[in-house]
Design goal:
The structure holds 2 protein chains of 2 kinds.
Chain A (H helix, E strand, L loop, with lengths): L6 H11 L28 H13 L8 E2 L12 H7 L2 H4 L11 H18 L3 E2 L6 H15 L6 E4 L5 H11 L6 E3 L12 H6 L4 E8 L10 H9 L3 E6 L10 H4 L3 E5 L15 E5 L12 E5 L5 E5 L6 H4 L12 H38 L4 E3 L9 E6 L3 H9 L3 E2 L2 E2 L10 E5 L6 H16 L1
Parallel strand pairs in A: 1-13, 3-4, 3-5, 5-6, 6-7
Antiparallel strand pairs in A: 2-8, 7-8, 9-10, 11-12, 12-15, 14-15
Chain B lengths: L44 H12 L22 H6 L3 H4 L11 H18 L3 E3 L5 H18 L7 E5 L5 H9 L2 E5 L9 H7 L4 E7 L11 H10 L3 E5 L12 H4 L3 E3 L2 H4 L14 E3 L11 E6 L8 E5 L15 H37 L15 E4 L10 H10 L6 E2 L8 E4 L7 H20 L1 H5 L12 H7 L6 H4 L1
The chains are: A alpha/beta, B alpha/beta.
Chain lengths: ~450, ~475
């Protein structure tokens, strides 16, 4: 498949090489390992594989058929038609890393615009061309802090209200380094919104404090006291963000964050069972040279025309090898393009509208749910964005199963990550959820209660 | 060209896509947290569409022309990949859905795990790594965990050939290994004498790219692996160049312990302008327990009437989670599509034609350009981009001149062990006419270098921009536009 060689072409080429058979080109491979019989399914035509995959995809229940209140790090937003339509241009998706700026101005300028939009959204000075996802961006924030203090500070404090998967990835990245301690996310330190216990842990050995805004439970917490305490001890503060929320909430840059990261999936990227998404990573001017990954800068060509190039590449692995800031060698190119187009076509007003709709509908849902018998809000006094937690009198697995019987994905059972939150369900509400959907959800839950 | 930025195109009051009005009662935003300003562009949808269309036209891409970028395997990206990954059942499933609602996804991932293990000759697979470099990190973490599990804490040395990609040492450094450079011999193989002198009980492993970055299959690979294994080390395979040996040989059978694939290279899932990649890692039996958490497994065997039940399982001694959710699932669908269409026969054919194409071009060019390692190559080859009798012309000049002929430059200045390297990889999807034209252009450029060197020095002449001032970019560091000042 996909090889254009005719028999005659092959003959011409073999003749020019002075060999009889293509196999002769592989004589350096030990004979006993040459030409194994691979146990793979027989090859299929395009028509056949499409039909197969159609039935495999249909074996799933998607958010098109199920009413979904699942969030917990990935959100079902409306994606304007222009986003995917433009993404499917071959000039975008069949190009590679823009190492040759003369023939890559499109990709370079798009990344420059992405960097600009994310800086604007987060209130930061510098943003790179992206990491793999929010979780790996969180791990890279810790790596940045480690190198910023040249390994002299070994405490990394992470709020328990940071996405459990981010914390898990960070731990995996640092597992070989026995000298580094990742603390603050134990049950004892807890998830209190005042952050007092986490603040108590900050000291002169603290390299980084990582919090989430809105946090994993959707809560909007004032981190100013924590940021001040961290800075008083010379530590850096990284804030993991939800980009949609920043359409209406004060950006962390204004709160004093040193690093702002986030999961970019809500910016026009389909759920796609968890990836590919993108991790954005923005820092203050002071940390500019510590940032990992690709950066696009504006310059001119030799005729003085405006041009864009990859810049400060001397930080990166292909130049610094073992001394690089990270081993990252790609960025989420096409996903950053999706995010850039998404933010552009929604624009200033549209983006705020999405954020506001999420906020309003989530609050309506929370209000309605808290009126259902057997359910109450877990954090009634704390502001939240588009995700909230309810406490149920019934085990969550039973609740979810009941909802499933009514084609509803009811949300996220928090007890899988938080033993102290048994019988707690977390629901996300985006602009795609209608009032009718919310009323259906509460009606089904009422029915269950009285069942 | 000068396409304004989206911020410069903005005009207050102009709208793109609108959202419906709210159907629920309005509540106030949280006090003290209200955002004051959001300086996003205000442009119409048509302006945005034209902007991103015009920008796309400034790119060279596989769909527009020959892209012989060595080490990157810029093969045709079948359009069907883009259709299958967008099937609603795949694109619209949430990563935290209950497993019984995503049996299609889990089946596909399970099958892809099996396919990748089989192609490489390994026992198991993780699909979690997001890119090749991320796969390397997984591999290095597993090597670390493996030795630690056996109580061999002193194994801290990672051998890395001097021809290796920069990601290999960068990855080893992240995991805390001591990086020990390993020499290449005169034929482009690992220097066996040097290797023997470096192995002792401090050896953690060797990161070997085979075929290597010179496009050469190591003639002593069995012995290299034996030396490392005898010293108690593990051999990591950088699978960047798997396209050369698909269906021709299996690294796992030769003795590699771990290998990462680059799905965006070898399995055509596209490159996306720099990503997303996908870097699944396959491992030998003794490393299965260390795979990242989770992998897809069969929870309940099927029978005549019911298919098996697939689910997420945690390996016994896992190195933990290394990415949120399940890896780049949308890329897995594309790779599954591609492998299914090729099958065993098609994979072998792809490798054979890739190697035939590379050798054909190498043969035609090696008289005019110096070929530092004069052997038959695998899927790519490395030439020297300079001539002693043409002072002042560098690999960069040749690369930039190719742009004038509508061809993307080869990878240049890599591998580091070849002076003024030009690394050329045609891939199997290019036809003979394209190869002949490339050869013809390269020969013409060699002639121009002697007769009209300024044509090369000032190239490109007809690209969207002339050569860019990279020093200025690094000095002035304009990394974003400041909309608040411009608006």
């Amino acid at each position: 498949m996909f090889t254009p060689h005719t028999q005659k072409d092959v003959e011409v080429m073999l003749k020019s090489l002075g060999i009889e058979r293509i196999e002769d080109l592989f004589s350096e491979i030990p004979e006993k390992f040459r030409y194994p019989k691979l146990d793979l399914p027989d090859q299929l035509t395009e028509m056949e594989i499409l039909s197969n995959l159609d039935s495999i995809a249909s074996a799933n229940g998607s958010t098109k058929e199920l009413l979904s209140f699942l969030g917990a790090g990935a959100y079902d937003h409306y994606i304007p038609a222009a986003v995917d339509n433009l993404l499917q241009r071959g000039e975008w998706y069949t190009a590679y890393t823009p190492y040759q700026p003369e023939v890559s101005q499109g990709t370079l300028q798009a990344i420059f615009e992405f960097q600009s939009l994310i800086c604007q959204l987060t209130g930061m000075a510098v943003c790179n061309a992206s990491h793999y996802d929010g979780a790996t961006a969180a791990a890279e924030a810790a790596i940045l802090a480690d190198s910023h203090f040249r390994g002299k500070r070994n405490k990394f404090l992470v709020s328990r209200a940071v996405n459990p998967q981010y914390r898990a990835v960070m731990r995996s990245y640092f597992r070989p380094h026995d000298d580094i301690q990742i603390l603050g996310d134990d049950q004892e330190t807890g998830i209190n919104a005042d952050m007092a216990k986490l603040i108590e842990l900050i000291d002169k050995d603290t390299a980084l404090v990582l919090v989430q805004y809105p946090d994993f439970f959707g809560r909007v917490i004032d981190y100013k006291p924590l940021i001040e305490a961290a800075h008083a001890h010379g530590a850096l503060v990284a804030v993991a963000t939800n980009p949609t929320a920043l359409g209406i909430l004060t950006p962390p840059g204004e709160l004093g964050a040193d690093i702002v990261i986030g999961e970019g999936q809500p910016l026009g990227i389909p759920l796609s069972y968890g990836g590919p998404y993108l991790g954005y990573f923005a820092v203050t001017e002071e940390l500019l040279r510590k940032i990992a990954g690709r950066l696009v800068g504006q310059t001119t060509d030799i005729d003085g025309n405006l041009a864009y190039v990859l810049t400060l590449t001397a930080r990166e692995q292909h130049i610094r090898r073992g001394k690089a800031t990270s081993n990252i060698c790609s960025n989420q190119g096409l996903m950053t393009l999706a995010a850039t187009i998404y933010m552009t076509v929604l624009g200033k007003e549209g983006f705020k509208e999405v954020a506001n709709l999420c906020y309003q509908k989530a609050h309506f849902a929370a209000d309605q749910l808290s009126q259902v018998d057997g359910y109450q809000l877990a954090f009634p006094e704390i502001p939240f964005f588009h995700e909230f937690v309810v406490k149920s009198e019934r085990p969550i697995d039973e609740v979810l199963e009941w909802l499933r019987d009514h084609d509803i994905l009811g949300g996220y059972d928090l007890s899988q990550d938080y033993p102290e939150l048994e019988n707690h369900l977390m629901l996300a509400v985006t602009e795609k959820i209608s009032r009718e959907d919310i009323e259906f959800l509460t009606a089904v839950l009422e029915e269950e209660y009285h069942d | 060209m000068t396409e304004p930025t989206i911020f410069e195109m903005s005009s207050p009051g102009r709208r793109g896509v609108k959202m419906p009005v709210s159907d629920v009662p309005e509540v106030a935003l949280p006090k003290g947290f209200e955002r004051q300003e959001l300086h996003f562009p205000e442009i119409s949808e048509l302006e945005a569409v034209r902007h991103f269309t015009r920008l796309s036209q400034l790119n060279h891409a596989i769909d527009t022309g020959f892209y012989p970028l060595g080490s990157c395997t810029m093969k045709y990206n079948p359009k069907i990949n883009e259709v299958t990954t967008r099937l609603s059942g795949f694109a619209n499933t949430h990563p935290l859905q209950p497993e019984d609602t995503v049996q299609g996804n889990l089946y596909l991932m399970y099958q892809l795990q099996e396919m990748l293990a089989e192609i490489g000759g390994f026992a198991g697979t993780t699909l979690q790594p997001a890119a090749g470099a991320h796969g390397e990190l997984v591999g290095a973490l597993m090597i670390h965990a493996y030795h630690k599990d056996r109580g061999e804490h002193q194994r801290v040395r990672m051998l890395i050939p001097d021809s290796a990609h920069g990601t290999n040492p960068a990855t080893s450094a992240m995991v805390g290994f001591d990086i020990v450079p390993l020499a290449t011999d005169a034929r482009g193989n690992v220097d066996l004498g040097h290797l023997k002198s470096l192995v002792d009980d401090r050896l953690a492993g060797l990161m070997l790219t085979n075929p290597n970055t010179l496009g050469l299959f190591d003639e002593n690979v069995e012995e290299v692996i034996k030396i490392v294994h005898d010293a108690g080390g593990l051999v990591y395979g950088d699978g960047a160049n798997m396209n050369a040996i698909l269906g021709v040989t299996q690294p796992g059978k030769i003795g590699f312990d771990i290998l990462h694939y680059n799905l965006h290279k070898t399995f055509s899932t596209p490159h996306g302008g720099g990503g997303p990649g996908s870097g699944p890692v396959v491992v030998a039996e003794r490393l299965l327990d260390f795979l990242p958490d989770p992998v897809v497994g069969i929870i309940e065997e099927g029978d005549d009437e019911n298919p098996p039940l697939y689910g997420l399982v945690t390996p016994a001694k896992t190195i933990g989670r290394i990415k949120a959710f399940h890896g780049h699932f949308g890329i897995h669908v594309r790779a599954f599509t591609y492998i299914s269409m090729l099958g065993a026969i098609g994979l072998r054919n792809a490798a054979e034609k890739a190697v035939l194409n590379a050798n054909y071009m190498q043969e035609k060019l090696k008289g005019t350009y110096t070929l530092p390692y004069d052997r038959s190559c695998m899927h790519e080859f490395v030439l020297e981009g300079f001539w002693d009798d043409v002072p002042g012309i560098q690999a960069l000049d040749i690369a930039k001149r190719l742009i004038d002929y509508g061809i993307h430059p080869p990878t240049n200045y890599f591998p580091l062990i070849v002076k003024e390297a030009l690394m050329i990889e045609p891939t199997e999807t290019e036809n003979l006419e394209t190869l002949d034209r490339f050869v013809e252009v390269m020969l013409k450029i060699a002639e121009e270098a002697r007769t009209q060197p300024e044509l090369l020095k000032n190239a490109p002449h007809n690209a969207p921009i002339k050569r860019a001032d990279e020093l200025k970019a690094a000095k002035e560091l304009i990394l974003c536009c400041y909309p608040s000042e411009e608006m």
